[in-house]
Amino acid sequence: MTHSIEATNLEFSYGDHKAVDGVSLQVEPGEILGFLGPNGAGKSTTIKILTGQLRPDSGEITILGMDMASDREEIQARMGVCFEEKNHYTNMSARENLAFFGRLFDIEDLDIDGLLETVDLTDRADDRVSEYSKGMRQRLLMARAISNRPDVLFLDEPTDGLDPVSAQAVRRVIEREAARGAAVLLTTHDMMEADQLSDRVSFINEGHVLVNDTPENLKLAHGKRNVKVRTRDGGGVTEKVIPLDEAGAGEQLRDLLTDDLMTIHTEEATLEDIFIQMAGRGLE
User: What are the tens digits of pLDDT across the range 33-49?
Assistant: First the structure.
């Protein structure tokens, strides 16, 4: 099967600083790949290379079976992008912004009302974008990114700094696009968001990819096989941690499953915990 997105040994430097150093990745149709790392790790530079905005110093890029070096315009016609910069025409309405974008890129059968409904902007469709909040502007960017029903979708920190309602609206669009069959490459330093959305994740640090696997596999490999049980103890609370690999773990759990049980849950490593183990630093 042809990968929707395939990059092999990408390298790129800004002067003497190597921002991307041997990055390789693949994304399949309908898959969300979380490309994770702290600010300055090389995420945004990699995205700019993959979308044809920067030419790599070395390496190969194949999108939808085509070579980015020779087929850039054809590839770009089939991709959607959403970056942090809110480059709207603020004196125009959301409807006018989408219509203008559609004309610029010859998008046929542009469903403006459907797009606005998808990002929950129907009620504000004819208001000037200058009156929009940051979250509303980001949702309009998402509508624009999916206006051509892209086969590949590149998202660079799409929920950064958004309120919870707007962030959740953007996440619903991402999930819907993947369910439609688009390959999604999502850069973020929000590990909780990546865990929620991603089928696989790649960690990048100082231009290097550290690991590429599913969130579940990473948490199983790096987490603790413990169960934490909290029970009521008179007027207080007792908390006990039971290692599942120890003899008698089942009996201990059974003995704690009483009417005084409050909570019981496994102790899994978070993606952020795993990143810190591998990179030796956090995400900030």
Answer: 999 988 889 999 999 99
Residue 273 corresponds to which tokens in the numbers above? 């915990």
What residues does 250 pair with on adjacent strands? Answer: none
Distance CA 227, CA 131 (A): 50
Distance between CA 64 and CA 113 in Å, rounded?
Answer: 29
Q: What is the number of residues in the chain?
A: 284
Residue 15: other Cβ atoms inside 10 A: 6
Specify the amino acid at residue 171: R
Domain that holds residue 260: 224-267
Task: Indicate whether 226 pLDDT > 80.
Answer: no
**Secondary structure letter of residue 108 according to DSSP:** T
* Sequence-distant (≥ 6) Cβ neighbours of residue 250 within 8 angstroms: none
pLDDT by residue (tens digit) across 190-210?
888 899 999 999 999 999 999
Same domain for 258 and 191: no
Query: What is the distance between the alpha carbons of residues 52 and 47, in angstroms, rounded to a whole number?
Result: 9
Facing residues of 13 across strands? 18
Confidence of residue 120 (pLDDT cuts 50, 70, 90): very high
Mark whether 12 and 74 lie in a shared domain.
Answer: yes
178 and 100 fall within a common domain:
yes
pTM: 0.85
